[in-house]
Amino acid sequence: MAEMHDKRFPGENADYRVARNALLAAEMELRRQVEAVAAMRRGLPPGGPVKEDYLFKEGAADPADRETVTETRLSDLFAEGKDSLALYGFMYGPDAASPCPMCTAFLDSLNGVALHASQQINLAVVAKAPIQKIRAFAASRGWTNLRLLSSGGTTYNADYFTETPDGEQIPVMNVFRKTGDGIRHVYGTELFFVPEEPDQNPRHMDMMFPLWNLLDITPDGRGTNWFPGLSYD
């Protein structure tokens, strides 16, 4: 294989460089594929109009205010000049003692990204639990940058597949677009719903989940049966 660049790390041998160059070629191809898939995603035709302008419960802008509850419609989530909304379905049901640890790990990272993402898009998190429970848990995690909503009392979760017919919560990221003829659904993380392939976790949020991508560059990878927890001893 032709040399791809002139950098050599201390102590590496010829076998390492041959294998690393093969991997580098695969990484370049993956980068091209990621860009191609992103272009396909951006090029999707308009999806269906939203079923209704859902009325969510939301807390006060001040994270320290745990008592004030307001009502926010889906249409209110679109700031002036920003026509795209990413709305994450957080697995925290109305009767759950605690939320999903995997969702929690994802939202730990999304909280840090939110300030940057909000320069370009609208971003919010919705769960079925009461808003007071959601905000109390958010405070315990230090989530100060996420717009948090409760979908309790609405059919949003059922309509956009963030819960099963029997009420089990599902972690789906849905994207909506404000257009001249109203708000339309344009994308959802449907990889979660396709038949599972051998040796493949559903892994529908990988592209947005820094934890998995970080582990994937190490020799130990993700481990054979490890998943994030709410806390660690």
Model description:
- The protein is an alpha/beta fold.
- Helix content is 29%, strand content 17%.
- It has helices at residues 14-42, 101-117, 131-141, 156-159, 210-216; strands spanning 55-59, 69-73, 84-89, 122-127, 148-150, 173-179, 182-188.
- A 7-stranded mixed beta sheet has the order 2-1-5-4-3-6-7.
- The protein starts with 13 loop residues before the first helix and ends in a 17-residue tail after the last helix.
- The mean pLDDT is 94.
Quick one: overall form? globular
Mean pLDDT comes to 94
Quickly give the structural class: alpha/beta
Residue share in helix: 25-40%
* SSE pattern: HEEEHEHEHEEH
> What are the low-pLDDT stretches, counting only 5+ consecutive residues below 50?
none
N- and C-termini, Cα separation: 47 Å
Rg measurement, Å: 21 Å
CATH topology of the largest domain: Glutaredoxin
Please write the CATH class name of the largest domain: Alpha Beta
Largest sheet composition: 7 strands, mixed
CATH superfamily of the largest domain: Glutaredoxin
Strand segment count: 7
How many domains is the backbone divided into?
2
- Helical stretch count? 5
Percentage beta strand: 15-25%
What is the CATH architecture annotation of the largest domain?
3-Layer(aba) Sandwich
Provide tags for this entry.
5 helices, globular, 7 strands, 29% helix, Glutaredoxin, 2 domains, 17% strand, alpha/beta, 233 residues, 7-stranded mixed sheet
